[in-house]
Amino acid sequence: MPNRSIDIRSYEGVRDLGPLLEFASRSFAERLPLNACWHPGDIAWQLMPDYDRPHRVRMWLSGGRVEAVTMFPKVNQLWLEILPDAEELLPELIERAERSVLRANRQTFSIRAFEGDTRRIAALEALGYVAGEPESVSFRIDLAEPLPDSPTPKGFRVRDSVDIDPGARAKAHRDAWDDLSEIGQPNARSQFSGDHYRGLMTAPNYDPTLDILVEADDGTLIVNAVCWADERSGVGVFEPVGTHARYRKRGLTKLAMREALRRIQERGLKTGRVGTAHFNQPAISAYSGVGFELFDRGRWWTKVLGVA
């Protein structure tokens, strides 16, 4: 790796989507059993609906292959991932990010790392970063074991999103994400529209047979759970999962997620994963009820930067 030239550039449009998804698939597979920042499904969800426009994603390439990726969820926060055979890129990658933060007149900079990745944490500590606030929790379920049955209550049915009306599918997402009062965000509002859903459908790794819904007899879509399958790693990831506020705490989320797990299990995938914010106790309880077990935590590692 040190003898190879590195090209650093931003995501410019849909031509970069394939290499970025390939990177996410490789990093997820090659970092097992450790956690990785992005599953291909995470990339597809975060960049939707318009994949053919620039995004604030930086790619580090060698010979056309993406070796590392950085993304700023906020101006002074960084998500990053590096392929295992390119870890020596970390100091330069962080140095460039720090300069960007200083140019934005911010002196405090935070980088997410997973607690299970002791090597990455040691590298961050060597660069002057210290453990800060919690960021996320990650859950997994072993699909080598049979999945328990989840009987469907009367008045509901489980279905997928094949031939779904985009407007109805988008409304199901809004119905779930417009009410987050349970986690202290009563004014949350989703902008997810039929156009957003149509854009999501163009992602090469989106599969409507893994976009699972729970539907009431009156046609109301109660639960929506998008599962993304990655054959290389054998891992399927849920992103996002949501339940209509009026129907929560009835075990309906379990129906959708277990149906998706059953489908990826039939395809030979070995593991299901899902993550959420560290403070999202309703989601944590729901995932535990499905059979997921906590296996990692994300935390911000923070550094006070010098004056530019």
Brief summary:
The protein is α+β, with helices and mostly antiparallel strands and 308 residues long. The protein has helices spanning 17-30, 40-47, 90-103, 118-126, 166-177, 194-201, 252-266, 281-290; strands spanning 7-10, 57-62, 65-74, 77-82, 108-114, 130-142, 156-160, 211-216, 221-230, 235-243, 271-277, 293-304.
Textual characterization of the structure:
- With 308 residues, the chain is of the alpha+beta class.
- It folds into two domains: 7-135 and 299-304, Aminopeptidase; 141-297, Aminopeptidase, CATH 3.40.630.30.
- Helices cover 29% and strands 31% of the residues.
- It is built from eight helices and twelve strands.
- The chain has helices at residues 17-30, 40-47, 90-103, 118-126, 166-177, 194-201, 252-266, 281-290, and strands spanning 7-10, 57-62, 65-74, 77-82, 108-114, 130-142, 156-160, 211-216, 221-230, 235-243, 271-277, 293-304.
- Strands 1-2-3-4-5-12-6-11-10-9-8-7 form a twelve-stranded mixed sheet, sandwiched between helices.
- Strand 3 (65-74) and strand 4 form a beta hairpin.
- Helix 1 (17-30) runs antiparallel to helix 2 (40-47), helix 5 (166-177) crosses helix 6 and helix 7 (252-266) packs across helix 8 (281-290).
- The longest helix is centred in the last third of the chain and has 15 residues, at 252-266.
- It is globular.
- The two termini are 31 Å apart.
